[in-house]
């Protein structure tokens, strides 16, 4: 990363602006002065030792702009020391990823003079870490705000956020790097892999890992799609033939997830996050409670009584969960009533219009599901999306309706997601950008103020809330494919097409719709790995049940349905056992990376032994010197040197 850019040409102590920090426009002057001094102060005095400068925006349309917008940067030396503080791993001269230390910086590969050694995302992550760990000292409250109490040792920035003094802080886009990344990523439509290393350098490991998973999932679906197309064309009306497809589906879902673990480990090792220790997290900005003692950190901090938390769970959360589940099932039953009505209308007067009417209830239900997902946000997506499909498959046992509902849900949800995630936000953001651009040009004329304009634009952009929604979408698509694709083989084809457009739309929205997010170091996809594995286990049960419902299987047991059920359950257990054996046989981490990790651990133990040996030797030497001194002067000597 180049550190030669300046905030303004007239600024003698120019620096590269990396992070924007916006305070409320009515923030007290003494609070601003205090915060800026804490950011600029030396580390030994409890400061962040960062560079910060104020941006002054001209009044626009007679309205005064917020004067409390600042840009934060750092010297290269401070960033390198910060890299050691946050535990960054970098490639050593021997090719092994090791924890970076400022003292041994020259021994790391590609260090040279330090320029370009740290990526943009790493520099901004370091600054965020330093701001987040800026801790209160002896202050009882924020200057100018007697009611905003400060707790010794707690994060100042988090406290200011929770009280609305700090509006936001976010990393600034690098226009040149963004232009290069956009060109190699999504501006040219091409059949090639994504530039994951470039994405990681610009956005960090968390986002790069998501796009790596999206790419891997898309390629892994290709065999399912290739088998599904002829299966759909030639064997569609013969539902007995989906047994083989269901078995292939089960094997595919297991191999898919196990091989992804290996790919994930390879990415994480190359990016230096596989062995990286997770920093202790500060309480979130909105957390509040009475001041208490934290036995882990040894500091006083706000605590919330466990009894109150349990009361909120059982008196608020649980009733809300039950209410939402009731609404989900109620909407589902309304959908079935609409479906029966449409079928009855078609049966009375079969024509083109009534044929189209058959698809209307499913389309309406798919739209309602998307709306309810937005309202439920995180909790009930699985129930909301799959409840009707399970009901159709195992209660109604109507495979034609199941196929129609699955196809309609897939197509409608994909169209709505593309519109809501990328196109609509981009259109709204483009309108805002034009207004800001016109205001700036009208006020400043032909003066060149690219930084002011850029900060003004990015300040008003939407905030990216993380990869949760992106992974959730892929999780639901994986569910559609693994649970029910045996009755609708084109499901994999539709998901492949969706994911190809998803790569471009997600790349576009990250570059132009949202503020640049801070890097989130990640070694894997976290809890989503468990979620996908759980879905694959449910898929075994679902597909075995669908096989048991097929007329081909029922024909073998015309007089004993109980025997058929027992055999299907036995097959299910065998497949589950095969799945777990396969998961055990395939190593999560490739062999070469295992060797490198073992070598790193061995070197660390050897270094620790050397330090302990040196320490013991010095202790022995000093003790001997002290005894000799006592004997020489026949009296106890002053023990200036001691172990």
From TrEMBL:
Keywords: Membrane, Transmembrane, Transmembrane helix
A single GO molecular function term of this UniProt record: chloride channel activity
Domain Anoctamin transmembrane per the UniProt entry, residue ranges: 378-599
Membrane topology, from the record: Multi-pass membrane protein
Transmembrane segments: 207-230, 242-260, 313-336, 356-375, 382-400, 406-428, 475-497, 564-586
Family according to the record: Belongs to the anoctamin family.
Protein name as annotated: Anoctamin
